[in-house]
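ok so for the tutorial part 2 we go from a plain amino acid sequence to predicted structure tokens. step 1 is just haveing the sequence, like this:
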Amino acid sequence: MSNSAVKPIPEGMHSLTPHIIVAGAAEAIEFYKKAFNAIEQVRMPGPGGKLMHASLKIGDSTLMLVDEMPDCGGGASLGPKALKGSPVVLHLYVDDADATIAQAEAAGAKVTMPAADMFWGDRYGQVEDPFGHRWSVATHKRDVTPEEMRQAMEQMAQGRQ
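step 2 — the prediction. this is what the tokens look like for a chain of 161 residues:
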């Protein structure tokens, strides 16, 4: 039976929501609170103290996370440390990229790319959290036309930026 008053995308959610696997999800929640001012919304503990699901609010977006479960039926659920890295970067827009990167570093993140002004108009840098997840942190500083961006990319490719 369908309830037409139920929204297909729940209130406060966006169409795309990152859902990450973390070795030590409870510790990760505490880190994200310190590093990115995350607000814990949901924590669902499972057997053996592992988190079956958690949900955090960072800025206006939700981040879902779960503990690693190597023996999970249908395929292992492993985080980036077990996989020896991750091809995924979580992108976070903030009011002050430099301050957020410094805050994340103070909380235990490793700065992998200090913040710098980029040709596409953002102040942008990257950190890796203690759990192996990579984060890009940006503040939009100026609007750039497609032509300006194309020219800047060409200059960068020629080493003249």
